[in-house]
Amino acid sequence: LPFKKVIAVFSGLSLCILVSVLDSVTVATALPTISSVFHAGSVVSWVPSAYLLTSTGFQPLYGRFSDIFGRKAALCLAMSIFIIGSLAAGFSRSIIQLIIFRGIAGAGGGGIVSIAQIVISDVVSLRERGKYQGIIGGVNALGYAIGPLIGGALAENVSWRWCFWITIPISVFTMCVVVFVLQLKRVEGDMCRKLLAVDYIGAALTLIGCTLVLLPVIWGGVTFPWMSPVVLAPLLSGVLVVFVFCFWEWKGARLPIVPSQL
Under DSSP, is residue 65 helix (H, G, I), strand (E, B) or coil? Predict the structure, then answer.
């Protein structure tokens, strides 16, 4: 791409990274306020945990989805799911609703950073990539620096709901940049063939494995003792599912989510 186009694309991708960082940091800052509003107590810890759980589970899927459907389509899908989840989270009337909607937002948020990194590798040469990755690191640092200030100010002076809504205008602007500025090679083929190419069994094993591994890590030492069956049983089951996933990707999948060469 020409240098001017690279700058425009990179600005949009940097905003994607900034949205992801701001969302996690501002929400974390507002957790005490949210807990007091809903009288949630320790249950409020599930607000960030639900996001972490779904974002981790869906993150490996977006890389392969971007290969099948295209980078632009996959990134727009991730941003759309994130926007819907964040918007709904701001309208939550109970802590359970908030946890569920944060899980939905995480299903989209898991793909934002990973696809942005993939697009950077597509549009920037290997020689220049280190420089742009350094700028991305600076964007991350900026998000972590201003996120707590924004989250605290919104929770104390406006409403905790704006901690979820503050990233939506940035996300919409970023989607416009992705749609109208980002120029990448389209993935040819009809939609039916693309849908058939998706490794659904691998996707299911990924989600199940991540859930079974992360849940006991979240519970351990907080909700249940580390050596309790409630923690050990899903943890060991998750390790087993990971082995099954690796075997399936090696022997069974036609288009594996994680290539066996890796």
Answer: helix
Interval 163-222: pLDDT, tens: 999 889 888 888 888 788 776 667 776 777 777 777 888 888 888 888 888 888 888 887
Q: What is the CATH number of domain 3-189?
A: 1.20.1250.20
Q: Quick one: tokens of 198?
A: 């998706």
- The answer to whether the Cα torsion of 73, 259, 135, 30 is positive or negative is positive
Residue matched to tokens 């993150």? 59
For CA atoms 135, 140, 146, 151, the dihedral sign is positive
With 0-12 CB in 10 A as exposed, 13-18 as middle and 19+ as buried, what is 185?
A: exposed
CA distance 69 to 64: 9
Tokens 């040819």: give the residue: 188
pLDDT tens digits for range 33-54: 999 999 888 788 889 888 988 8
pTM comes to 0.86
Length reported for the chain:
262
For the chain, the domains span 3-189, 199-262
CB atoms within 10 A of CB 138: 10
Q: How far apart are CA 122 and CA 119, in angstroms?
A: 5
